[in-house]
Amino acid sequence: MDDIVVEADTAALRSAGLKVTRGRLAALRLLQRMPHSDAETLHRHAVTDEPTLSVQSMHNVLTDLTRAGLLRRIEPERSPAPYERRVGDNHHHVVCRSCGAVADVDCVVGHAPCLTPSDVGGFAIDTAEVVFWGLCANCR
Amino acid sequence: MDDIVVEADTAALRSAGLKVTRGRLAALRLLQRMPHSDAETLHRHAVTDEPTLSVQSMHNVLTDLTRAGLLRRIEPERSPAPYERRVGDNHHHVVCRSCGAVADVDCVVGHAPCLTPSDVGGFAIDTAEVVFWGLCANCR
DNA sequence: TTAGTTGCAAAGGCTTTGCACGCGC
DNA sequence: GCGCGTGCAAAGCCTTTGCAACTAA
Question: Which CATH number, 3.30.470.20, 2.60.120.10, 3.40.50.10540, 3.30.1490.190, labels domain B89-140?
């Protein structure tokens, strides 16, 4: 039963052109049970089965799997946080993947058609934030 | 003319219950000209007028002004980045401001009515990411 | 064999913290 | 004068980098 999962993960790694290693299987397996986990948490749980796996290797594994499209990193990559003066209006942002440039997007959520759920899964939502990712004019 | 701006910034600080200091005025003034700047950039420009201002103080200033609602921090606050296995479907996330818990939001952007602009301000957009902020059931 | 991964150690980059001094009010 | 802000130094935290040893194919 677990074997089936391992098989599937193995196949996924293979078809992504990645070698099948214990660390990668561990990461995939753990993210099955704990769907929103960070590198350190995953490492902490992984060492039970893979005592030699280091935190840095876990970062490595996660970066590789993300690059291969098997995982998704929820928060944007680490970089200095920009600040702005425009507050109070719900405009949003488009960020360049290549150079990090930020621009405002006004039009998108004037009336927020799909961004108004006030209660989802027990959460009391107060704000919705939209970030568009792409390439700026210079980097295209 | 510049005096008018300074007056307005002064008033804004006062009405937020914050003391009016040179560092805070500098941050507000610079963000007028450079609307999406990070702490280090702002500091680099600020030292021209305020040679004694340190990077750490600039962080301090920005944190205070953000907490007071005078500024907005565009990227989420520094914390370990969670990973997940769900890729390929455009679901989104709701994050608890208090404990950092993350949950999936499926329904929101099935057809992505407002999230489809493919060209905004010269950017070639490939993905749109929605993050809802609020309080989870436990933290309410 | 050999190209791709891991382990380990160290550094990097942005941000926060602690505490004494100084300035706004 | 009182209390909030600042300056400075240091640490914190997550992540990346470099290189030798290893292992999947």
Answer: 3.30.1490.190
